[in-house]
Give the backbone structure.
Amino acid sequence: MADEKFDCIIVGAGPAGTSAAITCARAGLSTLLLERGEYPGAKNVQGAILYSKMLADILGEFWNEPDSPIERLITEQKMMLLSKDSALFGGFKSDRWRKDQQNCYSIIRVAFDRWYAKKAEAAGAELYTGVTVSDLIRKNGKICGVRTSENDELAADVVIACDGVNSILAQKAGLIDEWRSDEVALAVKEVLALPKEKIEDRFNLEKNEGTTIEMFGQITQGMLGYGFLYTNKESLSIGIGCKVSHFQKTGIPPYDLLEQLKAHPIVRKWIDGSKSLEYSAHLIPEGGYKSMPPLYTDGFLVGGDAAQMVNPSHREGSNFAMTAGKAAGETVIAAKKEGNYSAKFLSLYQKKLKETYVLPDLFDHKDLEEKIESRPELLNVLPDLLCQTAFDYFQVDGRPKRDLQSAIIKRIFRNKGVRHLIKSELNIQNALLLLKQGIKGALKYKSLGG
Ligand SMILES: Cc1cc2nc3c(=O)[nH]c(=O)nc-3n(C[C@H](O)[C@H](O)[C@H](O)COP(=O)(O)OP(=O)(O)OC[C@H]3O[C@@H](n4cnc5c(N)ncnc54)[C@H](O)[C@@H]3O)c2cc1C
């Protein structure tokens, strides 16, 4: 083992690792940040929407920095339900997002990760790139360093694993096995070059402002997942992801799904004339709260994708990684003060995460995917039915509205999938739950003086 011992070694220079490194280095801790890529971000994949608040908690008003790697300020967010040839959509646009710059931006991870890692170096962390960590080193059962694939040994009081979804380190620490195929999604993404003016014209945007479009329905062919399109300065990011277990079941190749999304009559026009710049695929941890490993052990913490900290229903992951990285860094600072790196002391990390949105949000969404998966009609029947209903509603065909409305209602209730969905919702357990919630609500209302 090399003679030098670091206060903290952080593995992975993604949003989690770099946030931890900045936090530790700023407090004067000797901090080593190890990244396997040739440079930070070299192989990292994200949509990518960056949430301002969590990064501002670490860097302050980064959007005012002249070299800030932001693409567009997002002022509008849309959702679309697609059938084969139609789209039902909703969305929200706000001038408040423009004025206070405080919600989110589109970014490109290669540029962002490099810029962010420079902030860690500026704070005093040492960054070694092109270094793959292959194992942990233990002394008397306690983790006290890492071994690289070149067989170099590096010592530290604490190791923070921020090595992403396929975390070798969390496995070596004995905290996780490999993920099951229902605990991860696979997303494929393409970046398409398009001139600035065309983007602003096609998506009705002001200069430097951007939009997000999330797409559900027929495009996932009954699998749990969604597509996305985000506007960058001079390119579009388009992608689609579904649960790996669903890809296995259907045998649909993920790249076929992306090609079909790009060929959809509504989507095709947005990307018309664009040139492919980059194609990538990446896993997303979607097991949520139930799949999370223990977050600490003696001399070791784990955060970000490595610990399943993603909320896919809200397209959030990089923000969880940043908040967790910061909390892990603060925990190591406290441990250094006490000279105590035991699992018991490091449990402070979990306590800190409970006080943020990270653990509450993961806990509150823990059953969502399971609930949707147990009602396949939501994925394979409802999107088409809703698009057809909207078509009928907006189509003026000379029928009296009362006939039209009753035809719509009949079609909905005659649909086998809808009937099955209603039946499965109307079981005794759900009825009792509704009753209980109703009584609770009434009592609360009464106690408030209602
Ligand atoms: C297609 C797609 C779209 C997404 N869209 C969004 C979005 O719009 N908004 C959002 O907030 N989140 C989004 N996410 C999720 C988000 O990308 C992740 O949650 C986030 O990147 C997690 O950060 P992290 O630092 O934990 O892991 P990562 O970003 O994966 O970083 C891990 C780092 O560790 C390095 N590493 C791994 N193993 C080793 C090793 N053994 N030795 C050394 N280094 C190692 C990797 O090279 C990498 O740099 C998306 C994900 C995907 C795949």
About this structure: Residues 11-17, 34-37, 43-49, 132-133, 162-164, 168, 187, 189, 239, 241, 282, 284, 304-306, 310, 315-319, 321 surround flavin-adenine dinucleotide (CB under 6 Å). The radius of gyration is 24 Å.
